[in-house]
Amino acid sequence: MNLNATLFAQFVVFFILAGFTMKFVWPPLMKALDERAEKIASGLAAADRGKAEMAAAEKRAQAELATARDEGQKRIADAEKRAALIIEEAKKTASDEAARIVAQAKADAEQQVVRAREELRGQVATLAVRGAEQILKREVNPAAHGELLSQLSVEL
């Protein structure tokens, strides 16, 4: 065998194999590699979009949390103001009620004093008449001496 013919035959087989590989094997292989690269690129792009969306969502959540915190503090402040107003109103109502009760008690006390005086006057008038009866040793007619007795009760 001739070395040149073997070498030439190997070149021909090599080029046929290379041509067959480039025509039938290489395109599906390159297509699969391109699809894989495309999937990886789209996955990386989706990951970047996800990170961006997550950062935006976190910013929105922080803003909402700050808004809720401010609103909560505002509601607490309003509730404290309202509680202070209710307390002041209750104090005023209690003060007015206490003043009314004191005034009522004073009026009741004055009425009792007036009643006691009237009762005392009546008793004194009765005692005075009895005393006069004893002094005069005769009966005094209250109907006949009504004016004198009423004047006496006024003086007492």
UniProtKB/TrEMBL annotation:
One of its GO terms (cellular component) is endomembrane system. GO terms for molecular function: proton-transporting ATP synthase activity, rotational mechanism; proton-transporting ATPase activity, rotational mechanism. The chain crosses the membrane at residues 6-26. It is a single-pass membrane protein. Keywords: ATP synthesis, Cell membrane, CF(0), Coiled coil, Hydrogen ion transport, Ion transport, Membrane, Transmembrane, Transmembrane helix, Transport. It is found in: Cell membrane; Endomembrane system. Residues 99-126 form a coiled coil. SUPFAM superfamilies: F1F0 ATP synthase subunit B, membrane domain. Its main location: membrane. Pfam families: ATP-synt_B. Gene3D superfamilies: F1F0 ATP synthase subunit B, membrane domain (1.20.5.620). Component of the F(0) channel, it forms part of the peripheral stalk, linking F(1) to F(0). The b'-subunit is a diverged and duplicated form of b found in plants and photosynthetic bacteria. F-type ATPases have 2 components, F(1) - the catalytic core - and F(0) - the membrane proton channel. F(1) has five subunits: alpha(3), beta(3), gamma(1), delta(1), epsilon(1). F(0) has four main subunits: a(1), b(2) and c(10-14). The alpha and beta chains form an alternating ring which encloses part of the gamma chain. F(1) is attached to F(0) by a central stalk formed by the gamma and epsilon chains, while a peripheral stalk is formed by the delta and b chains. Belongs to the ATPase B chain family. This is ATP synthase subunit b. It comes from Massilia cavernae. The lineage of its organism: Bacteria, Pseudomonadati, Pseudomonadota, Betaproteobacteria, Burkholderiales. The gene is atpF.
